[in-house]
Design a protein that fits this description.
Largest sheet: 7 strands, parallel
Strand content: 25-35%
Number of helices: 23
Number of strands: 43
Strand order of the largest sheet: 3-2-1-4-5-7-11
Distance between the termini: 88 Å
Radius of gyration: 38 Å
Amino acid sequence: MKKKIVITGALGYLGAELCKLYSGESRYHKIIAIDDRFVSEIVNQLRNWNIEFFQVKILNKSSLQAHLEDADIVYHLAGITDVPHVKNESSQELEDEIKKVAVEGTKNILESISKDCKIIFPSTHVIFEGLKQFKNDIDEEETPCPILAYSASKVQNEMDIKKSKKNYIILRLGSVYGYSNYSTRINIVPNLFSKISSLNGTINLFSGGRQIKSLVPLQDVVRCLKFMGENNKINKEIFHLTKENASVKEIAKICKKINSKTNLEITKDEIPNPGYTLSNKKLLNTGFKFLYKLETSIKEMITKWSSKNFNENLEYIKKGEKEFIDERGKISNYELPEPINLVGYIESKKGTIRANHYHPIQEQKCILIKGQYISIFGDLLDNKAKKITHLVNEGDLIITKPNVAHTMVFTKDSIFLNLVSGEREHENYGITHTMRHVLVNKEEKDILINSYKFDCRCCGSKNLKRVLSLGYQPLANNLLKNKKSKCEFYPLEMNLCKECYNCQLSVAINPKKMFSNYLYLSSTSKLFREHFEKAAKKYINEFKLSPKKSYIIDVGSNDGIALKPFKNLKFQKLLGIEPAKNLAKIANKEKIKTYNGFLDKNSLKKIKKNADLILASNVFAHSDDLKTMAECMFKLLKKQGTIIIEIQYLLNTLKDLTFDNIYHEHYNYWSITSLLTFFNKLGGKIFRAEKINTHGGSLRIYVKKNNKIKIEKSVKELLKEEENFGIKDFKTYEKFSKEIYKIKENVIKNISRIKENNNIAGYGAPAKATTALNFFGISHEIDFIVEDNKLKHGKYLPGVNISIVGKDKISKKVDCILVLAWNFFDDIKKNNKSLCKKFVNIKDLEKNWTNNFVIF
């Protein structure tokens, strides 16, 4: 049967939660909310729940009567609750006001309701505050002993209700605790202590915290109110509504357990009484069951009120949580920090663009229901910020901060929901809520769709997670012929495969753009020449290589630097494979036979097989199709032959923060963990691994086709070292990313300090210089760059347009040389003292200088 239900004090601590409980029935019953206050947010919520609201004072009998005379159930929750706890906090004026509202207001309600109406009234445990001795399990027959106006008025209310001959239920509440979205009584001990704990404050325990409290959870209170109101078999009764008993000290210890930063301090302050406990035996006999717990409620309050770990990412993805999976499918949950007032359903076709705008106030939240898209975003509040991309897959909730321009490039037919909190009126587009900002044009869209890497090249998994974005960057070694030359920019971002822990770039650029005319000459460096000379001798000795019989191939042979030591030792069967036409020409000129092309299935037909040794030094990261490259190497290899690969070592990159070794030529960033997965899938075996000191820290691995070969302990030791470091823990990568951005802040600040009193020249134009300077946004701070490699003279570093010159072009000493080829700092400083007295390693700029720090 439909009923009219009236809740007075509806905007209060109990009232708002009771309204929420009835919101599911407001389409059937007529629910009336009454309060003398007007709280905009709560009233709006009541309206949305189809609950009528009237602003009425309970002392205004005529206004009350209009709403109560035909009510079936009245929950009388109205009254003054912010009351003194001891006499010295009170005044006669306040005492009179408390009594007047409580007593006269209750009489007005009793006189306004019909004889058939049921009134549910929350009284209080405080009516026993006059007890001088501790008393346990007080039942409903105990005579009240109030002291203050609040408890005395509650006793009077109980008496008046019983005398009224109306149908009633009186619930004497223990101390009500718990979080509410609408209104919380902070002066109740669990709530007060939770607030103090959330602020890392000090909880004072009067008289050691020995006072005992009878407690009851807020949600159980409103459940019990509704239980009593709707139970026709329970009438004209008084119940003690408490769930548990605890000392003040015990409550404080729970807070300390949840937040260890909470301080507990015992004081000698007196307490009004030793406390008492109420018996809930009579209530439990009605069949009512409690559902909520003290520690859980305190944890909720402390968590919600504590400072949050603010997500500093401009845009980030949240996966569904607390998933439930059975034979029917899956349920995923997404917790949102704010209410949603509008949901937009949006369909987008493959190859299209959406957004290209930003929101000045609102956070954008979208859930991708079907399909896939590349999200591109950039911070509009930071003029040095770079564009960043990441991939959004089905089921992802993507959150974009205000004042972050963003664009969606759809790689599949897609459907997503736009979850809006705030205004999104179409006529105000571009005025109040959504501002046009073209971040991605058609040309860039096509580049992204054609070059984006959607799966792991090591294991094929699509479970990739962003580690670091260095923004959009030019191809590191594609130096410009002049300042006005066109420069292409691509995302330079490293992702982690969560399945095999391989790290790779988010895009794979066509290798012909990077390697057809390559300006990096390995032989320019004396250190590299010596490195390969030592390596050649080591391999000859260990694998008993013969100058006349042994066939050696070097993949990605550059100018022949790795094969030249063998040639000098009279080895006859040597072959380099080099895709850069200019470098292959140099090597062939030096009588080192070199095939000009990529190692792929087509070139395999043109290359002699049965190699004893295949070398691949710092090129195994240089291919998008590594599987094909590795398979070709195995096909060229003799049955008992060995493949030796040198790669920049991911572990060193993470440890030493050498992010500038990340550039588009390096598609992949290897650890022994990911390499083992890769070669195991191809039927190869890594049997030895060793660290080498090139490129800021590299790894050399030895691979055979023979699966029965014994794996040396060096492999197991490196695996253990990686695991101990956290190569499988994503927090390791998050820390790395944060530290790289801190480096950026330091470099920008420190180079500005040097520039104040010095002109600056750079030394060395390696790929790492392109990465670093573009990431830092450094351009005009450096006047020019000195470079030993003649192929780079007269060109410009891409993205920052700094000219590259030879030493012969410097007519006078410069104030400061910033060494960009930092791994050769000592040699550069030693060999170029005539150019400058002040040499600074760019790695030193990465430090946080103090005010008195002197770099020179």
